[in-house]
Amino acid sequence: xxxxxxxxxxxxxxxxxxxxxxxxxxxxxxxxxxxxxxxxxxxxxxxxxxxxxxxxxxxxxxxxxxxxxxxxxxxxxxxxxxxxxxxxxxxxxxxxxxxxxxxxxxxxxxxxxxxxxxxxxxxxxxxxxxxxxxxxxxxxxxxxxxxxxxxxxxxxxxxx
Amino acid sequence: xxxxxxxxxxxxxxxxxxxxxxxxxxxxxxxxxxxxxxxxxxxxxxxxxxxxxxxxxxxxxxxxxxxxxxxxxxxxxxxxxxxxxxxxxxxxxxxxxxxxxxxxxxxxxxxxxxxxxxxxxxxxxxxxxxxxxxxxxxxxxxxxxxxxxxxxxxxxxxxx
DNA sequence: TATTGTTATACTCTATAACTATA
DNA sequence: TATAGTTATAGAGTATAACAATA
Lengths: 160, 160
Prior knowledge:
The structure is a homodimer of 160-residue chains.
Chain A: H1 29-49, H2 55-66, H3 72-79, H4 83-95, E1 99-102, E2 112-115, H5 117-137, H6 143-158
Antiparallel strand pairs in A: 1-2
Helix pairs in contact in A: 1-5, 2-5
Chain A binds a DNA duplex (23 and 23 nucleotides) through residues 54, 56, 71-73, 81-87, 101, 107-111.
């Protein structure tokens, strides 16, 4: 049996309460961001569940709308997923008649991806719902704080 | 075949370049945070790979160190994972002699979880490496911005 | 009867290699 | 031969039900 180097005297208020968060971990942006992100993501998942859509499907629709006719390889890159992951995602959107793959390029191996009229209409609704949900899930911040957070996140991602 | 409502005239600089990010998605904190988080998380994964550890294993060690003797149920809650997920994680830490499960409670169903001496020693090294990695992956921000980001993330998570 | 930790299981997400059809 | 999209597959991560030992 291994020797214990510390006495088991906990610093917890009660032995059956939640453990206090380690001060060290709280100093890491990565740790804090992961916890916050999981919370926001779950909120988004719940919001979109009413439409039987996953966040990646919604993002895909928004990117297609902004870049009609783009190729799957480019869409995959924009979503930061691998091309094989895109196949079932697009199949689902096509089966619901929200998007279409069209052989419309000089290179006949590739498809141009477009939203259907239904897809565009639904996207309008989704955009509103998603923004609403995003504001809800960041309601702990005032407008200035939310704008600052957004700016810092973009700065991080774009490595400026 | 579905009717297309938009001409396939792309707004892309070149037809073979990456699609421009949708302006709408960039207005969502959730979207920006997910992208930034994935980037930071990957950086952490790479940093810890030298030690054959996953982020959750490192976090577990830090929480155990701060709360020696805590029960698995409490550790699971602190890590925001389900108790069954903790079993292989702790098995791995035990097999590497970094942590131990000890039947040391009045309630003999539960274990007290402790770091071994080796575990504590490794954790010291890991803390330094992880902080170093965290600062690296947020090097796009100056000290004040990093502190602000940390504050806003905590505010979001703690719903204040 | 309820709870701690565990097993078994399933579903999602992710990543890679191999295949097809075009180029 | 190289590339776009697809298929097959395997590995994580996650979630739930059911079980054994203890309360």
